[in-house]
Amino acid sequence: MGKKTITSSTSSKSKPLLKTLSDFILKKRIGRAHQNAHLITGKKGEKVAANYLKKNGYKILDRNYHCKFGEIDIIALEGDILTFIEIKTRSSREHIPPEFAVTKHKQSKIKRSACHYLGKHCIENRDCRFDIVAITMEKGKKDIVLYKNAFS
Predict the structure, then answer these.
(1) pLDDT tens, 71-113?
(2) In 17-103, which ranges are continuous DSSP H helix?
(3) Which of 32, 67, 76, 88 makes the best surface tag, with the fewest CB within 10 Å?
(4) In sequence order, what DSSP letters do the residues of 53-70 get, joined into one string?
(5) Per the confidence metrics, is the pTM higher than 0.70?
């Protein structure tokens, strides 16, 4: 008995279904590998940022605060000011600078998450601000820029 090729019946010029499935699986694996590399870069960036902030007088209160509105990477005190800090990390200078990834939409999510944090912890009448730490790690070199009061 000969080999049968299973084909998809969605179009008149169908690809063999097994070829389509293997392409799909390969794309998923590549996507996951890219996603994993992206997550690893982000985690490294958060560690670098936390160390940088500590060395510059920040007292870290919370990391990766999650609520229904989103996430805040780092919540810290700089003196008496409560800071909500977004960390953006890139592994290359080929694309847009990391700080440009904090869009108006992302800022809105951070602000709502900050309000949630303040309410949950019964914090009132406290000076607060939003900072961004932009990190580029390329060829073993780390470029760190802290934007205080980056948005309001």
Answers:
(1) 999 999 999 999 999 999 988 877 788 899 899 999 999 999 9
(2) 17-55
(3) 32
(4) HHHTTEEEEEEEEEETTE
(5) yes
Euclidean distance between CA atoms 5 and 53, whole angstroms: 60
**Tokens 């007292």, located at residue:** 59
The one-letter code for the residue type at 99 is E
Task: Look up tokens 């602000």; give the residue.
Answer: 111
Q: How far, in Å, CA of 2 to CA of 16, rounded?
A: 16
Question: What strands lie across the sheet with 58-67, from one edge to the other?
Answer: 58-67, 70-78, 81-90, 128-138, 141-151
Q: What sign does the CA torsion over 44, 150, 74, 61 have?
A: positive
DSSP at 127 = -
In Å, what is the CA distance from 17 to each residue of 6, 10, 70?
6, 10, 39
> Dihedral angle at the C-alpha atoms of 129, 125, 114, 56, nearest 10 degrees?
40
